[in-house]
Amino acid sequence: MKTAWEKRSIGELEEAVHRHNILYFVKHKPEIPDKEFDRLVETLKKKKPDSPVLAEIGSDISQIGKTVKHSTQMLSLDKCYNEEDLKRWADKFEGDVLVTPKIDGCAVALRYGAKGELTLAATRGSGVEGEIITPNAKYVKEIPQKIGLKNGEVRGEIYMPLSVFKKFEETFANPRNLAAGAIKQKDPKKTGEYRLSFFAYDLLNANCKTEEEKRRFLKKEGFSLVDGKRIKKSEMQRVFEEYYEKQNTRDYETDGVVYKANSVIEQNDLGATAHHPRYAIAYKFQGDSGQTILRDIIWSVSRTGTITPVGMVDPVELSGASVKRVSLHNYGLAKKMGITIPAKVLMVRRGGVIPNIEKVIEGKGKPLQAPKKCPSCGAPVELVDDFLYCTNPKKCAVSKIGELDHFVKVIGIDGFGRKHLEQLYESGLVKDSADFYTLKVEELLPLERMGETLTQKLVANIESRKKLPLDTFLQALGIPELGKHVAKILGGFGNLDKIRKLNQEELAKIHTIGEKTAGMIVEGLKEKRPLMDALLKHVKMEPPKGVGRLLKGPLAGKSFLFTGSLVAMERPKAQELVESKGGTAASGISKNLDYLVVGGGGGAGSKLNKAKQLQQDGAKVRILSENEFIKMLE
Ligand code: IVH
Fold this sequence. Notes:
Elements (H helix, E strand, L loop, with lengths): L9 H17 L7 H14 L4 H6 L9 E3 L8 E3 L2 H8 L6 E7 L2 E7 L5 E6 L5 E3 L2 H4 L15 E7 L2 H4 L9 H8 L5 H6 L3 E8 L6 H10 L8 E3 L4 H11 L7 E8 L2 H7 L9 E5 L4 E13 L4 E13 L2 E7 L3 H7 L2 E2 L1 E8 L3 E9 L3 E2 L13 E4 L2 E4 L2 H19 L6 H9 L14 H4 L7 H12 L3 E3 H7 L7 H8 L4 H6 L2 H5 L6 H13 L1 H8 L3 E3 L16 E5 L7 H10 L3 E2 L9 E4 L7 H11 L5 E4 H8 L1
Helix pairs in contact: 1-2, 13-14, 13-17, 17-18
The protein binds 2-(butylsulfanyl)adenosine (IVH).
2-(butylsulfanyl)adenosine (IVH) binds next to β3 and β8.
């Protein structure tokens, strides 16, 4: 006996298969029993085995794996994490802002043909090329198969509503990953089983003048839109807070708020970077999180003596920056968290800025051990409640911060005030001077009194101090006896290796360096070896200015001081001449001075009197007239 279907024409059967297919897989409201549907399909198969409609329900038509070039690149969104950056973004254009929640799903492009029919659906892929998912898109209820606009393109996000995700949450990490998998099913009807949703956020080729107009059009054509509204720039932060509050009341996961310049003319003026259009930005609810491995702990000592564990982690990309260090706040807290070394940890940047370990995912390494001695000064450590303290705080951190201060001053990095240095030291970001060279803008920004302009200037400044004259390098080490004068003399050796090998005897031979000072310098250089090695990873040495022949030449080892006005030349020129012949230009009078030169133009005052006094006290200082000095040079 013939079934009712067998009496139908091929065209009728095709239409019926298409319709019931959609009712079953897409709308989830079948009108006929499954058995009846099977009979319908069998009938069509017999009459027209190659009917394209059959392909809609079988796996054989899957185009998964094939790619297509996007009509225009599908860019990403710029991100920000605070009101200041959001305002800075909005300052660049005129007019209102269109705001929508940011849904964590998968971006897709839908192309419609000359009759307004859906001709292509593709994932974002690389942004330039995406994967074809046209058959699968037919199984997403909210994607219209036909629209009024000819040759248009709609872009939006495929996502899984939380109410659907509920039954998968045991097996899948989050709705986004599941949606991404679901849309690429080889068998498109399987895609339908995941009950994915779609919202449209962009319309191409429709000549709309505003985002609002695009939304009106999309709505009229049957697309779903997330709740959005046009707002004034002054309302941006308030709306962010409103959306933040509403987060848990929606049937989809949101991770921020998307703002767009409403005017399309403004959008075109703004243009785009290779990564994102400048007309839109996502203000994220929270810094992204990421897993990484905690490799080591260093102990950071504050001015007040608190010793804080600072975690060194494998670099992890969080909220747009690569993070390598994280404060663990205090020893007790780190212990309670179950920190081990190594450990697999989950990290975020709180408020999008401050790195934080949220939890230990797997802690199978060595348990955290408190140091017995202060890592900065070696004094005993004591544990009070959760906190570790150095028992001699006055001596340790303060002097370390002093060393950092000396370093930035000597090498000429302006802008690091004492407060900044304290914060950098206490956070563990800068434990010694070599750490300045690895500082990043994102690491400096959270510090008090640090704006973006200043941080960028500081980082650029540090970068420009990677080529240091040898004497500057030596002076910057912070060896108490190795000041500017001695650094200049040592610089005369021409390279660091030679200086490192000097012994006390050799150094003491140099005029103006006494035996005791020589011993302390040798000791200091030995102590600073690790610091020098660390610095040498970042800085290159250049020959010291004007001291290249210091230890050679007719004036080698002799020091000269000038007083009164010189007739034959300016004072700097005279000093340069002295240095070029191996001598040093002294900055003040002392018993170690060799020559005081009295300028022929008069005006010699206290220096001359002092030199005379020193001579009476038995010092070797000689007083030269300008003429005698010039003869000496000849
Ligand atoms: S507008 C650059 N609005 O987030 C294209 N995108 O992480 C302008 N997204 O590539 C997109 N919610 O796929 C826009 N309300 C929303 C969005 C949204 C989620 C996606 C979009 C974008 C990605 C960046």
